Amino acid sequence: MPYYARRRQKGFTIQEMLIVVLITVILLAMSMIGIVTYSRYLRITELDNSAKGIFMAAQNRAILLSTSHRLEEYVVGSDNKMDDVDVFPGTGNTSKMTAYYIHSDDLKNGKSELLPKDTIDPQLWEGDFYIIYEPKSASVVDVFFNKGKLPVEGDFPSFYKKWRTQPRKVRMKSKPMIGYYGGEAAKGGDTISLRTPVIEISNTNTLTVTVKYWVPRSLAQIGATGKVALDVKLNYEKTDFPLLVTDAEKQENPEISYLGYSYTWTLDSLQDENKRFHKLFSKAGKQFVYGKDFVIDAGVSYKGTLDGIHINSSRKTAEDNSLFAKGSTKDVALIGYLRHLQNLDTVFSHVKEKTSAKQLNDIYNVDGYTFRPIFNRVLQSYDGVKFAIHDLQIGDRVNDTTIAPETHAAGLFGTFSGAANAKKEIKNTRLVNTNLTTTNGVAGVLLGAGDSVDLTNCQVYWENKSEQTNDLRDLLGSDNELKYQAKGTSI
Q1: Of the four listed, 86, 222, 311, 331, which is most buried by Cβ atoms within 10 Å?
Q2: pLDDT confidence bin for 74, thresholds 50/70/90
Q3: pLDDT value of position 480
Q4: DSSP label at residue 361
């Protein structure tokens, strides 16, 4: 047999086989290490998530008990007190606080109000855990958890000091493993970022702005809540007006990791004469054109220093229209509420430049409010878009000395003069169940007086809601001398 044929029939040598086996064993060992590591990672993640669940439930209860001034009753004691606890562990800051620890056995033996059994998963309730409180700020500081038994040898304060700042990889190697959650403070390192404030503008029959901001509980724990400053200003036509917190309605809204606060200012009111936009936001020597958009600028910052801790500030802006619905332009007023409609009156709101108005939806009267007939020499067009205006109680302007006596006519629009030679129109407008009271002879429910005003697709009618009569005069409180007449489509 040829030599090359014998070489092809030859198998692997023992050395080659041993190399293959060795490589296989090494690969298996490496994969097993990865599997074991991943398995331990899943276990520590589960324990940390369990600690977080307990933390959040306990914090909610702490907030609730604090509002009824009962938190310290359950938490504060002489045998569970820990002095000189770091507020910002693992940083260069030396701020301290006094904390109190509660063991899971304490909850099962008389202190269940701190964490009722039904507020967490039953499996967590059966585990071994410690909750650390700072009662003055109604804060939960940390939670340690294990399904079986935590490796607390001796007193808990020594365990706490040792394990509070240990990273996950170290806690994962502990036997047994230690689950831990310390809230936002434990994750923040040497930087605290103040949450961006939230601006909510309500543009209805009252124009209000509410600014919400939050103080981290870690700052509350060192008594620094008052150093977190809220700065709010309103900008109108490039002029800044400060909105002072002393002029606002304040609410407290505590959350898991933060103390929440909100301040609400009234910028324009239908019924409060002292809170009209043109009165609140004016400046000597400057003429404003009211009816434009305004901008709210809100900022949160820390007024002070903390050694080893950097605190980032944050800002937010929002805008809306001062007198009308959002989206109104220089010439067009959008009307969505009775306040917007009333603000078309120049004397009421000092509005300028709006030559037309467009209704966005049905409008309803406000209880107890008497509508002032609209007087506006610039307005040329009102389009109701076939939406209705319900239950208006219209008065007159006989005693209004700010306008000429000949313009005292009463109606939704007292007068509709518009600019000279301009086309004037009221269209697609529906008045339902309107009541008009006047001592002046010039009156009309839709329009008191006007010169060459086109009325197109307008309706004025009353709904018979009475079971006593079908007589329209009875419904309106009229006598037999009063006549109702509709004539033509323009006046």
Answers
A1: 311
A2: very high
A3: 46
A4: S
Higher pLDDT, 402 or 130: 130
Query: What CA–CA distance (Å, rounded) separates 272 from 203?
Result: 15
> What's the pLDDT tens digit per position in 218-258?
899 988 999 999 999 999 999 999 999 999 999 998 888 89
219, 192 in Cβ contact below 8 A? yes
If you search the block for the tokens 């310390």, which residue do you land on? 182
Residue 248 to residue 261: CA distance in whole angstroms: 12
Q: pLDDT, tens digit, for every residue of 131-181?
A: 999 999 999 999 999 999 999 988 999 999 999 999 999 999 999 999 999
6 alpha-carbon distance from chain centroid: 87
Complete DSSP assignment for 151-190? ---S-HHHHHHHHTT--HHHHHHSSS--EEE-HHHHHSTT
Tokens standing for residue 122: 């039953």
Q: Name the token pair of 163.
A: 């394990």
- Exposed, middle or buried, 488 (CB in 10 Å: 0-12/13-18/19+)? exposed
- The CB-side HSE value for 489 (13 A sphere, CA atoms) comes to 7
How many C-alpha atoms does 282 have within 13 Å on its Cβ side?
Answer: 13
* DSSP structural state of residue 92: S
Write down the pTM of the prediction.
0.78
